[in-house]
Design brief:
The chain has about 775 residues and is of the alpha+beta class. It contains 30 helices and 13 strands.
Amino acid sequence: MKRFAKFVVKYRLIILGVMLLLMIASLFAMSYVNVNSDILSYLPEDVDMTRGLNFMKDNFDMQGDAIIGVQGATYEDMQELVSLIENKGGTKQGGIIWYGLLKEMQDIDWTIMENPWVASLVNNLLNKYGLKLEDLKEMTEQLSNNPEIVSLFHPDDETYLMMLQLNVPSSSNEAMDLLSEIENYFDEKGLDYAMGGSTQITREIFDSTIGEIGKYALVAVLVMFIILLLTTNSIIDPIVFMVTLGVSIVVNMGTNLILPSVSVVTYAASSILQLALSMDYAIFLMHSFAEEQKKTLDDKLAMERAIPKTFSTISASALTTVGGFLALFAMRFKIGEDLGLVLAKGVFLSLVTVVLLQPCLMLLTNKIARKTQHRIIVPKFKNVASYAVTHRKTIVTIALLLLIPTVIMQNMVELSYIKFVEEEPNPTAIEQKVDALSNSLVVIVPAKTESMDGESNIKDQYEFLEKIRERDDVNAVMGLFSMLPEDIAEGIVNLVNDEDMGKLMASSGMDMSMITGFLNNGYTMYSVMINAESESAEGTKALNEIRAILDDTFGAGEYYITGMTQAVSDLQDITPTDFMVVSLVSVAIIFVILLFTLKSLKMSTIVVLVIEFGIFVNLSISYIFGQTVNFMAYIILSSIQLGATVDYAILYTVKYQNYLGIRSAREAAYTALTESGVSIMTSVAILAGCCLSVSLITTNIIVSEITLMIARGSIISGILVMVLLPALLIISTGNQKLEKRSIRRLQNKSMKKVYKEGNLSDTQQTK
């Protein structure tokens, strides 16, 4: 590191130029990073929601959906919209389901049957499956006048609803552009409309997050600048810190280009967290440089000495932070892996810029920094230290009394799963209709006839429909068999699967998409509209009872099911396990790092327990005040709060260990806290201030709750480190002092280190 430091100082101008080019390249690369706003795409492959989505994609060419509702449009307006959607692309064949399909069936031109060749071919196909032309006419008549379907898509003369089945992912540019085209069309017509479905949800998440990044980044930077201005002795220092870490953040976001995609949560939160978590590194270098400046008049020599000293400190700090992030890789919900990777990369890049770029900037601005020095306005924390030492038994007793209640309460926090953006407080009539249609389960079950090398289960389809329609919590069921007369259903299924019939329909222009869109590869698809919120006890009950009907009718494991209610159910299953695994892994990683850092099993255990207790208190506050916590914030809190705030405890404990060699436990605890209190509270203020400012202004519920929990956690951890940790260390250590040999060895080691650095006069060296 000494050679590296000399290299940095010598080639500082070249380094500045290279960093400038790297930042420009990263700014350019940022615009090409693929941001994934489909949160549910990070579900594990083996849960029911993902299995259903994959099956639907492979067999029905469907990857997403959109629900469109409009009031005041004419039938001709809707026909024009359908034409626009077809030309734009993004929907599967037959994937535009609306009232017009029913009306078109009423208007089928049967005169084509007057052609002898067509009549002969059609009759042969119909006879092959025991059908007659009158059966087709009856089917189209029942379809076009089906009251259940009509009420869904044309509930009154002024309202039309439309379901789009997309053959592109919900978060893709094609899906987003399609919704924008539809919005523009309605806006030009001056119509009242609403949108729902998975594509609209992902778009709302994307817009609310990307559109606000600049705003809350600006606020976070302003908050941090004010804090740094109060805790550093020069106006220039905060600017240098901001530039240094700003470059690392830009490079981190630009290098995300090497990843297939990053989640919108990661994209939004990582920059703020990186800034708040890494600022300590920049402050450490400033302090080290200031100390070395007192020993020499040569600023370059002072920096050459400061960089190696700083690197050992901040690399250990970065290691604990990265250790917490690595625990996120243990989550089954893959957004943890996404967030952990980007944050770990960001911390590493911050470490690089602090030891590479910041020295260059500090040497460049050092003269200005001296001229703009001001007094630091921070307390010494002597009263806090005195209280922690004097009332140590009371403090530990209170903590022990609170331990069990907090452990219980943090497990009772109410979680939310699919509430990603703020809901409209007073939804319009059309918004309510779209919401009702959006809240549906997509069920895919086998549809077999005797000609499909197996036993027919067509009767099972109608048994399933009968049981579902009897339920009070089901508004409607839409599917092939809900639209077909039972006596001709088996023949129609065979006919639709016949290749010759497909060729005939294609050549004659007959549109049977209302049927073929719900039947493929021996499976049929139903949309079951339930009148309960996806994230509610009623919704969960409806899902479980519908699954019981499916098990009884088709057999367990013989069907696929998707929908927001199913997504909630899957997330409820994996969240407790993910929370437990992430907590255990993060504790294990941090504990190992602490053992190497503190070289004490007892002290390492105490440090981990103090921070973990802070996590329990943080979550318990949410329970006490009846706050709902997003499941992602709940899971990742343990790793981020532990990794981010354990540095406070390490800073204090190392100082305590150093003083314990020459003072009593109480004196060591008091002195260590008065010396480290400013650094601890500066770190707390930066992390809490940045995160809290973001939480207050963002409309993205996930980002808001993650930043709020981290802000609150940093404050709690800071208080516990300054009050509970000293008390525990004193009680666990007692009033013992190190043996004289240990003291002498410690002093000799310290003297040799000082002598080696050449910081003693000749007289002092002789002594």
